[in-house]
Specification:
Distance between the termini: 57 Å
Oligomer: single chain
Radius of gyration: 46 Å
Keywords: Coiled coil
Strand content: under 5%
Order of helices and strands: EEHHH
Number of helices: 3
Strand order of the largest sheet: 1-2
Mean pLDDT: 82
Protein name: B box-type domain-containing protein
């Protein structure tokens, strides 16, 4: 008849041969007293791990507040930029309208002067080819000015203090998703 010999493992803590319980995690043998202590240590580690988890979860919730503040800042920048653009556009409209009105006024004055000379010459019947050529030349010049595209050019004012400065978001490149998910 075969007899089985069981070999008692010593407790890893006190080295007594009374090691009766084995931890499946660390593969160590413990006596009853030290096995209870070992389980208590594991329980404390679990508590600490839970606290760390809760802190990360709280930080994650607080990061939402930071995200909201960043988005508010971006929205504020956008609104201020839009206001600056609207002010610049309105000023540009005013400048263009003033230029075109001045040009039209100058042309009206010139045309009125030519009209007076033509009427005076016709009424007095006192004109020659020289006056006719002069008036024709003046009328053609006015016609060219009227038909000529405006000399107004729109350009960006890079040196302006009130120019809109673009924002840039710098993102930290981490491989969190690949590492943990």
């Amino acid at each position: 008849m075969a007899t089985s010999v069981t070999c008692k493992q010593p407790c890893i803590k006190c080295d007594k041969a009374g090691g009766i319980a084995s931890c499946a995690g660390c593969q160590q043998w413990f006596c009853i007293k030290h096995f209870s202590e070992h389980r208590q240590e594991l329980s404390m580690e679990m508590d600490h791990l839970s606290e760390e988890h809760d802190l990360i979860q709280q930080d994650l919730l607080e990061s939402k507040n930071i995200e909201d503040r960043l988005l508010v800042n971006i929205n504020d920048w956008e609104q201020k930029s839009i206001e600056k653009i609207q002010i610049a556009a309105e000023q540009a409209r005013i400048d263009v309208k003033k230029y075109l009105d001045d040009k039209k006024q100058q042309m009206t004055v010139s045309l009125h002067q030519i009209t007076k000379e033509l009427q005076s010459g016709r009424q007095s019947d006192d004109y020659t080819e020289v006056e006719l050529k002069k008036w024709l030349k003046q009328i053609k010049e006015l016609q060219e000015l009227l038909n000529k595209p405006s000399s107004i050019r729109m350009s960006d004012d890079h040196d302006s203090q009130s120019s809109i400065h673009l924002i840039r978001i710098a993102l930290e490149k981490k491989r969190y998703r690949e590492k943990y998910l």
